[in-house]
Amino acid sequence: MAEGNNNHSNYSTAKNPLKKKVEIVSNLSLQKKITGILLAIFGVILLINGYFNNTVYFINLGIGLIVIGWILLIFSYERYIKYDITSNVLNDYMDIIKKLIKELNIETDGIVIPPKENLKDGCIYLPLHRDFKINFSLIDDSTLFVNSDNRDEMGIILPPLGKGLIKLLKKYRGEYNVPLKEKNDIEELLEYLDYFLTLFQVGNNIEVKIHNKDIVIISYRIVDNSLCKKLQREELCNKCPCPICGAIVLIIAEFLNEALKIESIVEKNKIVTIKLKIIRNILK
Amino acid sequence: MNHKLIFLIVLTLFIAFISIFVNEVKLFLILLLICFLLLYSLMGHYFNRRIQNNLNIILYLGIGVFMVIVFQKAMEILNG
Fold first, then answer.
1. pLDDT of residue B74
2. CB-based burial label for A13 (10 Å; 0-12, 13-18, 19+)
3. For chain A, what percent of residues have pLDDT higher than 90?
4. Count of other CB atoms within 10 angstroms of residue A64
5. What's the burial of A2, exposed, middle or buried (CB within 10 Å: 0-12/13-18/19+)?
6. A186-218: buried (b, 16+ CB within 10 Å) or exposed (e) per residue?
7. Residue A274's CB: how many other CB atoms inside 10 A?
8. A150 DSSP 8-state letter
9. How far is A78 from chain B (nearest CA, A)?
10. Closest CA to A76 of B62, B50, B16
11. Residue A35 CB: number of other CB atoms within 10 A?
């Protein structure tokens, strides 16, 4: 019984920071609502006062305050799943992937393959051996294990975790009818990635550098690094990146239209640095 | 910086500025609508769908007010 109580108190302590965070967010939302309502009420009073006293400035200010109060109220009613909740849900899925990788004893890093005819959303290929070959005739959307007589072609295909976010991004963005890869402009790519991070409120300050046309280095600031810490501890980042890094890597692979080897994904003080190596002539 | 914050700061500053210097309500409303349209077209796509739908109500209301003002002005001109 005593042990049970102890476990319960440990559980409560672990959940407290999250609870506090949720409370702060709720309080902020309430503050916004109160401020919005107060501004609107003050605006109405000014408007009525200005109307009866024939003071145009008061009428103007009244209308202005009503509009600002209304907008503040609109901004306070937003509802979105906070990333810390999502990361906790994702932990369970990452555990399954971890078990799979551990069982198959895969030590190679992931290869990001952009969308192709037989791979509509792209994929992450984990070869079994370091000297690998990719046989695209063996890979499609329904493949999980790549079996081949040639041991270098064996591996597993994982659907990239960020593909759902990319679909949502395309749905919101709307205006990008032309695929990104056809534009081939790094500024366009940066703007697109920045939009992605801002839209889902998961990060900012993204930078993309291409060194010697061979190495791509991306760095960005992540809002919540709780999932990063878990993935890094279990060395899963290079094999199966989280949805945010996964989406970024997939967008870049799509933009360059090349397969990319994940060299490293490092998170330090909420700054995530992704190093990718372009594997040329593999998709041709 | 957060796009919502930028949106609110610019709109508040603009409203404070024009409410002091404009001494006609109709002109104030038109300038306010122009500012709102500009800010909304620049930053609207950064907001989520629910916020966009709610901001559209303000936008349509503003356009409605603008149309009333234009109609009044047209009637004034036609009636000499």
1. 92
2. exposed
3. 14
4. 24
5. exposed
6. eeebeebbbbbbbbbbbbeebebeeeeeeebeb
7. 24
8. S
9. 7
10. B50
11. 15
- Measured between beta carbons, the chain A residues lying within 8 angstroms of B16 are 64
Exposure letters A241-267 (e unless 16+ CB within 10 A, then b): bbbbbbbbbbbbbbbbebbbbbeebeb
Residue A183: its pLDDT value, please? 56
Task: Decide if A204 contacts B3 (C-beta within 8 A).
Answer: no
Q: What is the pLDDT of residues B45-80, one digit of tens each?
A: 888 777 888 899 999 999 999 999 999 999 989 987
- Angstrom CA distances, A207 to A49, A119, A185, A216, A220, stand at 52, 28, 14, 10, 6
CA distance A233 to A44: 56
Residue A116: alpha-carbon gap to chain centroid: 22
Asked if A66 and A40 count as a contact pair (C-beta separation under 8 A), the reply is yes
If phi over 0 gives left and psi between -120 and 50 gives alpha, with beta otherwise, what is residue A64? alpha
Give all strands of the β-sheet with A259-268 in edge-to-edge order.
A145-146, A155-158, A123-127, A111-113, A259-268, A271-279, A215-222, A203-211
Tell me what ipTM this predicted complex has. 0.92
Residue A24, pLDDT above cutoff 70: no
Report pLDDT for A32.
83
Contact flag A57-B4 (C-beta cutoff 8 Å)? no
Is A74 touching B (CB cutoff 8 A)?
yes
CB contact under 8 Å between A63 and B28, yes or no, is yes
Report CB contact under 8 Å: B19, A80.
no
Asked if A56 and B15 come within 8 Å (Cβ–Cβ), the reply is no
